[in-house]
Structures are given as C-alpha cells and as structure tokens.
Specification:
By secondary structure, this protein is α/β, with parallel strands linked by helices. It contains twelve helices and 15 strands. The radius of gyration is 19 Å and the shape is globular.
C-alpha cells in the first residue's frame, strides 16, 4: 500500500509574478499523480458513524494529528502545484483553521470536481476543500460550513470577443459552442438561458486552450478562475470578459462557496464555522485569500443555511 502524500506544513502562496503555461500544465499532471497516490491510501481513512450526536471525527482527527482534504485541481480554490504540493485559497484556510482545532497537519487528496462528494461520503478524505458552490441539491448529500466567498461568473473568449458574448443569453442567441467544467453550476445557468451547445472539459486551462485553438467559442467559469488563468498564461489569443451574472427563474444568482463535510459530522462543521467567523470578523480571511486573486468584493455574510433553502 502506497503511503499518502507527505504532510504539508505550509500552503504554497500564489506568486505575484504569475504562473506560465508550463507551470499550469505541470500542476495538472501533478493533480493526476496525487489522485492516484491518494486512491491507494485507504489505510488512512477515518470512519464516520451516524450516531445522532454530531459525530466524533474531530476527536479522531486530533488523535491522528492530520486531516485529508479533497481537492479538485481548480485554480484558485484548490490544486496541486508543479512542486507536488497543494495550494489554493481553500487549503490555505484549512491549514489555519485545523491547526487551531488541534489538527496540525493537512494532507491533499486530489480528484475530479464531479467526484468530490462521492469521495467524501465514501471516506476517501475527510473534508472537501475546493471552494464548492453551496446549493440545495448538494445540501441533501453533505453539510456545509458557511461560505468563505461569493462569486459571479466570467467567460474566456477569443481576443476581441468577436461574437460579443457578455451574458449567457448572448451565448444562446449566437449559437456559440460553450464549454465549462464537469459538475459546474454554470451548466445549469447556460441551460436556463437556452444554450444548446455545451461540452465539459477537465479545467480552466483546457478551456483556455480550446478557445485559443477554435474548438469552442467560449469557456465559462467563476470570475476569479477565469481572470487568473488568462493573466497567468499571458495568452495573446484569448481574453476574459467582465463579470457575468447568471439568472435562474428570471432572478439574478450570486453563488457562494464553502467547505463540505459528511452529514453526521456536525461537531466538526460547527467547530470549523466558529474559527471561520473569527477570521471573517478580524479580516484575516481576506488576507489569506487575497494572494489567490480574491478582493473585498468577494467577501460575504451569506450563510450556508440560506443557500441550502430550495
């Protein structure tokens, strides 16, 4: 049985100098390797029992001294860098909070975004640390901490935005070929607007390359993700649009993302929430997230309970 990846003492921060294509591609390769490594490490799983009393995972993690974080390889939320270490806003937050909860070490478990909830509930890792959007469907499968950020969308389009795509409705009217990530909320937003040509790609880098090569007309993702990949690759063939507001039933949607936990583990979720709220109140949360492209505009007071309502 292969051992899990080594404990990460410090989450690697985003560099102001920007990542080049080689760095991003290396990160994608490292993600796959880390996922394969984690998949063979069932011996480090921590069990969960629905005892009806809030669960005992926090105590077990303290005794073990480490927590496994489910990552999805999406910048800037959580991903494996070219050096094989995890980075991103969510792991950086997790590192601080779990240390304060008496769990000094955090370990990455890389998987595809669409497999995060399944992996969490099958005990492959202990917490989803991927900036996952909170919505009623997901709330039926897991429990969420209160969100650490709010977010609108943005598009990657060819330089000059020849099809003038500034909204989901624009994509539909133009009959444009759209792509986004597997399991992303943007799929439903596009369908709501009448978009017919929708495909999925592994990540935002694959989306950027597909736009540059003319295989799709637009890649849709969260605003920070889109801006970061366009800036860091220094592409001359594509650009990021301004922020785009999605609509559902004619009403604007502002998405929020947070950490997900297995449903019985309310003690762990509540303890995590208490530390998260302290970070929000002091301004520490923004300080941690700013190096990854977040601004004050992405800070939020919305609660998970609000977003879990049908």
């Amino acid at each position: 049985m292969a051992p899990p990846m080594g404990n990460t003492k410090e989450i690697r921060r985003s560099s102001g100098s920007g990542l080049r294509r080689r760095t991003l591609l290396a990160g994608v390769a490292a993600l796959g390797a880390a996922g394969a490594m984690g998949a063979t490490s069932a011996c480090s799983r921590v069990s969960t029992a629905d005892t009806g009393d809030g669960g005992h995972l926090l105590e077990q993690l303290r005794a073990k001294g480490s927590v496994r974080l489910g990552l999805a390889g999406e910048q800037p939320y959580s991903y494996i860098g070219k050096d094989g270490k995890m980075t991103g806003s969510a792991p950086a937050i997790a590192e601080r909070i779990f240390k304060r909860l008496g769990v000094p070490n955090v370990q990455p478990f890389a998987t595809e975004f669409g497999s995060l909830i399944t992996g969490l509930n099958s005990l492959q890792f202990d917490v989803v640390a991927a900036g996952m959007y909170i919505n009623p469907e997901r709330c039926e499968q897991v429990i969420f901490a209160d969100p650490e950020y709010q977010m609108l969308d943005a598009f990657i389009v060819p330089k000059g935005n020849p099809k003038k795509l500034h909204s989901y409705k624009d994509i539909a009217k133009a009959g444009a070929r759209m792509a986004t990530g597997v399991g992303y909320a943007e799929i439903d937003y596009a369908k709501e607007a009448g978009v017919e040509h929708i495909t999925t790609l592994p990540d935002q880098l694959a989306g950027l390359l597909a736009v540059e090569q003319g295989r799709i007309d637009v890649f849709v993702g969260t605003a920070v993700t889109v801006r970061n990949v366009v800036r860091e690759t220094e592409t001359t063939k594509a650009e990021a649009t301004e922020e785009v507001t999605p609509y559902v039933d004619g009403k604007p949607v502002i998405d929020v993302g947070g950490f997900a936990f297995r449903s019985p583990e309310t003690h762990l979720r509540d303890a995590f929430n208490r530390e998260l709220h302290k970070m929000k109140k002091s301004g520490e949360l923004l300080d941690v997230m700013r190096p990854f492209g977040f601004t004050k505009d992405q800070m939020t007071t919305i609660t998970a309970k609000e977003k879990c309502k049908p």
